[in-house]
Write a structure and sequence with these properties.
Shape: globular
Helix content: 40-55%
Number of helices: 3
Order of helices and strands: HHH
Number of strands: 0
Largest sheet: none
Distance between the termini: 34 Å
Strand content: under 5%
C-alpha cells in the first residue's frame, strides 16, 4: 500500500490555522476542525512561525474557526 501524497494547504486553511493559534488552541483542536492530521498541523504551524499550545481550552473552538 502506497502512502498518499500530502494535500496542499489552501489559503483558507492557513488563515484558520493562524486564527486557531491566536486563540491559543491546541494542535489537536485545530487538526480536528480542519480535518487534517495533527502532525500536519504542527508542521505547517512551524513553517509559518506560529506557536501552538498544548493546553486544552474549556470551550470548543471548532465553531469559531
Amino acid at each position: 500500500m502506497k502512502a498518499r501524497p500530502p494535500k496542499d494547504w489552501s489559503q483558507n486553511e492557513q488563515k484558520r490555522l493562524e486564527a486557531g493559534a491566536r486563540m491559543k488552541a491546541s494542535a489537536e483542536e485545530i487538526a480536528k476542525s480542519l480535518g487534517r492530521p495533527t502532525a500536519s498541523v504542527r508542521r505547517m504551524a512551524r513553517s509559518l512561525g506560529l506557536v501552538l499550545y498544548k493546553k486544552r481550552r474549556k470551550a470548543p473552538i471548532a465553531a469559531a474557526l
